[in-house]
Amino acid sequence: MTAWVFSRRALPAAWHRSAPAYLWPGAARALLLLAIAGALAAGAFTTDAATTSHIAAQEGGDWTRLLRGMALLKAAMAAGATAAVLWRLGGAVSAPWWAAYALACAAMWAGPGLIWGLAHIGLGALLLHGGLAATIVLVWRDPAVATRLAELVARRRAALGVAAAVPQRAGARPDRSARN
Question: Residue 105: its pLDDT value, please?
Fold first, then answer.
């Protein structure tokens, strides 16, 4: 009975042949930027202004400037990772891959917003670093990234007029067996 429930025969035949839905690159990028803006706004407006000003007055101006500077630095880190994701979304992307990228980027951008509000610093740091790690793993494991990088390298080599020979390893020593 259990083998029947988890076998492919338990599913309709049309599900086996269905291709994943792909998003147009412009729509994928626009939807990702919308998700990022929503996450950043949600993170920034989680704490009301009265609570933020109370925490800033209680902890001091130096501490507030330090944490807000840290939030800006973390936003710069998130911008770099988002640039890599937007580059990836320049080609066709399936809906599950897009959803994973959107979730990772949204978590990553909610972090600086929470840190800026001064009330949820630990949660903001956790969201930022978790989203950053997830983004790195997604870009690393996405099969379309290797294809796009190979195309980019081939175009650049063609533009430079460089042959497609296998490059030597950087720092490789010349063969010294002919000596002595």
Answer: 96
Mean pLDDT of the residues in the chain: 82
**Per-residue CA distances from 172 to 153, 168, 176 (Å):** 22, 7, 12
Residue range 59-84, pLDDT digits in tens: 788 888 888 899 999 999 999 999 99
- Going by C-alpha positions, the residue among 75, 89, 96 that lies closest to residue 31 is 89
Helical (H) or strand (E) element with 22:
strand 22-23
Pairing of strands 93-94, 22-23: antiparallel
pLDDT band at 3 (very low <50, low <70, confident <90, very high): very low
Handedness of CA 24, 27, 29, 35 (dihedral sign): negative
- Assess if residue 30 is contained within a domain: yes
- Does 100 map to a domain? yes
Give the range of the structural domain holding residue 150, as residue numbers without chain letter.
21-158
- 138 close to 100: Cβ distance less than 8 angstroms: yes
Structure tokens at 1: 């009975």
- d(Cα 21, Cα 28) in Å, to the nearest integer? 12
